[in-house]
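Sanity check

After download, print the first record. It should look like this:
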Amino acid sequence: MIFKAVVIENDAQDGYRAEIRELDESQLPEGDVTVLVSYSSLNYKDGLAITGKKPVVRSFPMVPGIDFAGVVDESRHPEYKKGDVVFLNGWGLGETRWGGLAEKARVNGDWLTCLPESLSPKDAMAIGTAGYTAMLSVMALEFNGITPEKGPVLVTGASGGVGSFATALLARLGYRVTASTGRPDTDYLINKLGAAEIIDRSTLSAKGTPLMKEQWVAAIDSVGGQTLANVCASIRYGGTVAACGMAESLDFPGSVAPFILRGVTLAGIDSVKCPPEKRNEAWRRLAEIVDAGLLGEISHEISLDEVLTTIPDLMAGRIKGRVVVSVG
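Expected structure tokens:
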């Protein structure tokens, strides 16, 4: 059976490239569950993979797409049968294993999760890895005792996928959110997502001092680099920073001063190999907190054929919120 997919190639003759191609089902990788993909999404990591700007892809050819939702077509796994509605994010999808930007996917059934009844496949991808990562970040703050009455929480990269969700989730849970962005998104961030105030990202991106003015009790950072260093230096005594992204840089040009003089906790957020118990708890919380109204505000839909033309806008930061890809 023929199906359509985004395929990344890298060879000596034609170099690094991505294209939409028709594949035969026999070309699918090994796995015990085959899924008819309904929806996927576009994330910053997908942009890095498709453009080749960072060495995200580990083998070629590769189908990108770090998550997908759909219906089981064939299964040799004891937990799943034909017709089950499932989703998958993490586990090297789109990096070491073929991902979700295709009409079919074949995977290890141990990586799959049954979709909560209150969420549709489109809902799951409107949330996607970005929303799931944001929820894990919120849970990290909660684990370290950060409650709404403790004080304001900073979200960097607040106009992006993770940042938009983090802003909305925190606001819905009663936190006062300061949103950092490089775009004039005042109405979107305040009126739609619930931010209390907005600061320009330039205030955090210049080199700072090891200890800066204590402003926020916690932060969720999807940016990394100098911004993360300044964020840590600006957290109040005993606060927590959840680090979950690298949109600015993988570097951390910071100091140990916030950690040993102010007792700040830097919590790393890994969405790829997160244990099943924590993964399921995050999705349970998302199903409770998120509704159709929020998903409508925070996402928009494109087709599989529009993926490659959308990537430049995604990488340039011209897209607000989440991009859902209608695949099947």
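If your output differs, re-run the checksum step. Summary of this record's structure: The longest helix spans residues 121-143.
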